[in-house]
Amino acid sequence: MHILVVEDEPKTAAFIRKALQAEGFTVAVCPDGDAGLAAGQAAAFDALILDIMLPGRDGLSVLRRLRELGQRTPVLLLSARGGVNERVAGLNAGADDYLPKPFELAELVARVRALMRRSGEHKPTVLRVADLQLDTLTRQARRGGQEIQLTAREYRLLEFLMRSAGRLCGRMTLIEKVWDYDFDPGTNLVEVYIRRLREKIDADFEPKLLQTVRGAGYLLQQPP
């Protein structure tokens, strides 16, 4: 599960990231509202943890814009201000939950899990692109009715690409979301796994679904 944390206080962001990763989540962190809005538009996340007081765009502005764009990702708002008016403003802007600062990390993790359970009730567990399908409960991939064996990392890569189907995924985005790195390791790691995945899901099938956009990234979609 992929979580976006938009928090400008580095220590708080680091604590949240560590706590969520310990629970098995993949976490991306943005330090300001503008970066958070861009990340929320560019990639598919299962939940968003959003501080209200941010440099640049404030959290409520980010939330309103994402909802205007049709993003239905569950959002947990964080704020040092615990007044009723701010909580009401956040919920009216489209937030799903609100947690005042300071908070216990265990409660934050529990609230994130609760959000994802609620959203999961209406979220398909089987992802499909053309005749390729991925069951996120059994972690089983099939194409044309044929089962495809994936390693754990190949599964994470395919799941992210399928959740982002039709959208360009840059190399650094994949490094952050699939490998949990916040830096470029300077190797051909992504290229190697893309090649392995392409051999499994595309080599013996038509049409080819996993496309390389030279100099930009990768795209999983059914060709027009």
Description:
By secondary structure, this protein is α/β, with parallel strands linked by helices. It has two domains: 2-120, Response regulator (Rossmann fold); 126-220, Winged helix-like DNA-binding domain superfamily/Winged helix DNA-binding domain (Arc Repressor Mutant, subunit A), CATH 1.10.10. The chain contains eight helices and eleven strands. The strands form three sheets. It has a five-stranded parallel β-sheet, sandwiched between helices. It has a four-stranded antiparallel β-sheet with strand order 6-7-8-9, covered by helices on one side. Strands 10-11 form a two-stranded antiparallel ribbon. Helix 1 crosses helix 5 (105-120). The longest helix has 16 residues, at 105-120. It is elongated.
Quickly list its features:
224 residues, alpha/beta, Rossmann fold, Arc Repressor Mutant, subunit A, 2 domains, five-stranded parallel beta sheet, four-stranded antiparallel beta sheet, elongated
